[in-house]
Amino acid sequence: MKMRTFKRHLGESVKSLRRNGWMSVAAISAVTVTLILVGVLLSILMNVNKLASDVENDVQVRVFVERKTTKNQQDTLKKKLESYSEVKKVTFSSKKEQLQQVVGSYGNEFKLFGGDDNPLYDTFDVQTKEPKQTEQVAKKAKTLDYVNDASFGGTSAKKLFKVVGSIQKWGMIISALLLFVAVFLISNTIRITILSRRNEIGIMRLVGATNGFIRWPFLLEGAWTGLLGAIIPIALVDFGYIWIYNGLQASLASTSYRLLTPGTFLAEIDLLLISIGIIIGALGSFVSMRRFLKI
């Protein structure tokens, strides 16, 4: 397509938006509401995916060492754990260190359990090369000498992954339904444009205009509708996410979990919303032309 022709189609699409008045406003508003909800859902889904990844990476085996185990016996146990092909790292934590963590989390009253009254166990925290190997390593560790018990966060992680899977599934379904509604509303707006310009289109066909020449202004009109409808959602999602991110930073500081940092993440969301807006706008136009333009 020549640049001059494209500019003409672009101008026609802008004029058509103005001509349709409130119908154009209604279509843009529909896209705006849809993209706000889609943007919120995408932000949630992407952070849920990161949370699932963080939890998966944080899953490890905790090996509880029997009381009265000597230092040499602990070293022997550590070497045995490190010899497993599935094991990436083994870290020792004394019962005194663990009591200090409890005191820091729950208060000084737990200092009463210091010294010989400490009910906690010395532990080895075993990090596996793959999260799915934790259960296998835990079972093997239970059979070793000087081991009182071995546990892993697999059960809780599996439950969390199940919840995450449900959120992802329903999030995608809801997003698809919202996009379908937006396409439907845009197609109705373009249909009115087509009906109002039926005589003009008939004349264009009589003088030899190609199907592509007739379609382009309507496709561009739909794309404009989607693009304009993405402006408010981008602003709301960006400012809203930054506000929530700053508010939750302090709460998450003591954990190993983090939200996706703004910047690159929001740039990706913005680009995605613009792309979705343009695509559903053009798709709405295409659907309308296919059904109502007899060309």
Automatic annotation (TrEMBL):
Job description of the protein: Part of the ABC transporter FtsEX involved in asymmetric cellular division facilitating the initiation of sporulation.
Q: Does the keyword Transmembrane apply?
A: yes
InterPro entries assigned: ABC3_permease_C (IPR003838), FtsX (IPR004513), FtsX_ECD (IPR040690), FtsX_firmicutes-type (IPR058204)
**Where would I find the FtsX extracellular domain in this sequence?**
59-148
Q: Which Pfam families match?
A: FtsX, FtsX_ECD
This protein is called Cell division protein FtsX
Which family is this sequence assigned to? Belongs to the ABC-4 integral membrane protein family. FtsX subfamily.
**Alphabetized UniProt keyword annotations:** Cell cycle, Cell division, Cell membrane, Membrane, Transmembrane, Transmembrane helix
The record's subcellular location field reads: Cell membrane
Membrane-spanning intervals of the chain: 21-46, 170-190, 223-245, 265-287
Q: Where is the ABC3 transporter permease C-terminal domain?
A: 172-294
What the entry lists under PANTHER family is as follows: CELL DIVISION PROTEIN FTSX (PTHR47755)
